[in-house]
């Protein structure tokens, strides 16, 4: 009888623990994820890097690093990440979703980006690119990335009832002009496998970088 009582108490405590973990997961703020990602804008592209300590990121290393901060574990390659979570229609994309790209209609995924903002006729993405480093682009106006779009995935738990900040839409015309300036990126090399890449120098011997400040994104 005593053993049965102890076992019942154990199951009860375990249930409460799991419920607490689920609640914490659901409460993850998509805006917090985007704000955290923006801290690294301006870092250069670094092949196979998943840490700012190595002077930069590649595309999937960046998304893996950002989501790990919030307890979400992603695979180390863009093609593997494109199989995680749930597929979402592009028109239903919201900040915190992942966008995937491929070079040809039947080609495999070679690049991933994080949705940072959705406004009227615009989807802004944060990603690490070979010729621009960590930057924000407008998927709707980027000829290069728009043509290579494949899919959108949601890797976060909880409801998708996201509401954009009120002032973001008001300042959209100014922002768009700032974000789409510059040239399109040329094709990007595949980012795998990580285990075959030698470690890059530490940040201590890398050139200093200054983050690009983009307001109201």
Features of this protein?
single chain; 217 residues; alpha+beta; 7 helices; globular
CATH topology: endopeptidase fold (from Nostoc punctiforme)
Write out the CATH superfamily name.
endopeptidase domain like (from Nostoc punctiforme)
In the predicted model, the low-confidence regions spanning at least 5 consecutive residues are: 5-26, 168-184, 186-209
Structural class: alpha+beta
Give the count of helical stretches.
Answer: 7
**Global geometry:** globular
DSSP, total strands: 6
- Rg, Cα atoms, Å: 20 Å
| Average pLDDT reading | 77
Q: Characterize the largest beta sheet: strand count, sense, and whether it forms a barrel.
A: 6 strands, antiparallel
Order of strands across the biggest sheet?
1-6-2-3-4-5
Distance between the first and last residues' Cα: 61 Å
Following the backbone from N to C, one meets helices and strands in this order, namely: HHHHEEEEEHEHH
Any idea how many domains?
1
3D structure, described in words:
- The chain has 217 residues and is an alpha+beta fold.
- The chain has a single domain (29-157, 164-188), classed as endopeptidase domain like (from Nostoc punctiforme) (endopeptidase fold (from Nostoc punctiforme)).
- The chain has seven helices and six strands, in the order H-H-H-H-E-E-E-E-E-H-E-H-H.
- The chain has helices at residues 2-26, 30-38, 59-68, 78-81, 143-147, 166-170, 172-179, and strands spanning 86-88, 98-102, 109-119, 122-129, 133-138, 149-154.
- It has a six-stranded antiparallel beta sheet.
- Strand 3 (109-119) and strand 4 (122-129) form a beta hairpin.
- The radius of gyration is 20 Å and the shape is globular.
- The termini are far apart.
- The model is unreliable at 5-26, 168-184 and 186-209 (pLDDT under 50).
């Amino acid at each position: 009888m005593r053993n049965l009582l102890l076992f019942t108490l154990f199951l009860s405590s375990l249930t409460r623990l799991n419920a607490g973990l689920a609640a914490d997961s659901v409460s993850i703020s998509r805006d917090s994820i985007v704000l955290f990602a923006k801290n690294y804008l301006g870092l250069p592209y670094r092949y196979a890097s998943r840490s700012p300590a190595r002077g930069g990121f590649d595309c999937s290393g960046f998304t893996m690093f950002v989501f790990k901060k919030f307890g979400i574990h992603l695979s180390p390659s863009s093609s593997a990440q494109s199989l995680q979570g749930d597929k979402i229609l592009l028109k239903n994309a919201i900040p915190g979703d992942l966008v995937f790209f491929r070079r040809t209609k039947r080609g495999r995924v070679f690049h991933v980006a994080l949705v940072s903002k959705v406004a009227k006729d615009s989807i802004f993405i944060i990603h690490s690119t070979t010729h621009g480093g960590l930057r924000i682009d407008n998927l709707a106006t980027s000829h290069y990335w728009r043509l290579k779009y494949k899919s959108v995935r949601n890797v976060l738990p909880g409801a998708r009832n996201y509401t954009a900040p009120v002032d973001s839409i008001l300042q959209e015309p100014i922002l768009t002009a700032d974000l789409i300036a510059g040239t399109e990126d040329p094709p990007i090399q595949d980012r795998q496998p990580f285990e075959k890449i030698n470690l890059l120098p530490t940040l201590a011997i890398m050139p200093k970088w200054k983050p690009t400040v983009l307001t109201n994104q």
